[in-house]
Amino acid sequence: MTDDETELLRFRSTLRHFPSGVAVVTVAHGTDVHGMTASSFTSVSLDPRLCSVSVNKPGRMHKLLRQTDGRYGISVLHADQGSIADFFARRPWSTGSGAAMAWREGCPVLAGALVWLVCEKWAEYEGGDHTIFVGRVLGHGATANPNPSPLVHHNSSYHRLGLPMAATDRSAGEA
């Protein structure tokens, strides 16, 4: 193994310790729906409403996002949707996940997700071995569940979010 490969693995291992929610990017291609579990999704701006997702360059989703009409869906997953995240992480070229889709603004999103967004490609930026796609949010919604439970990814495993910390607990550790 080269020094560069060793450093790449060390960097990947370091980043595993950052917990994050789990999102799936979906796009319609003809009559098929393709999806990809995104390891990097974030809000960018409230005005205009923008979100970004980083997509591996040699991947199928990268090609589809460049070829599509520019619309794609983002679904932030519920704690019980780990199998959907696994499916799209391992088979982003496939269309047979069996996951129920909802169509919003003419775009597929995962039914039952905590949050759904429909985006239109607004810009794209080079980001090493990924492209950062920034999308203008055309439509969005969230679960009506008063106690939503997001799927959380940390240290290469899925987790449920724990109990909220009281405000006094949060300020106790500040210097």
Q: How many DSSP helices?
A: 4
CATH homologous group name = Electron Transport, Fmn-binding Protein, Chain A
Overall mean pLDDT score? Answer: 87
CATH class: Mainly Beta
> What is the CATH-assigned architecture?
Roll
Proportion of helical residues: 10-25%
Spatial strand sequence of the major β-sheet = 3-2-6-9-10-5-4
User: SSE order in H/E notation?
Assistant: HEEEEEHEHEEEEEEH
What is the SS-derived class?
Answer: alpha+beta
Distance between the termini: 43 Å
The coarse silhouette is: globular
Uncertain parts:
none
Strand content: 35-45%
Fill in the CATH topology: Pnp Oxidase, Chain A
Number of domains: 1
Q: What is the CA-based Rg, rounded? A: 17 Å
Q: Mind describing the biggest β-sheet?
A: 7 strands, antiparallel
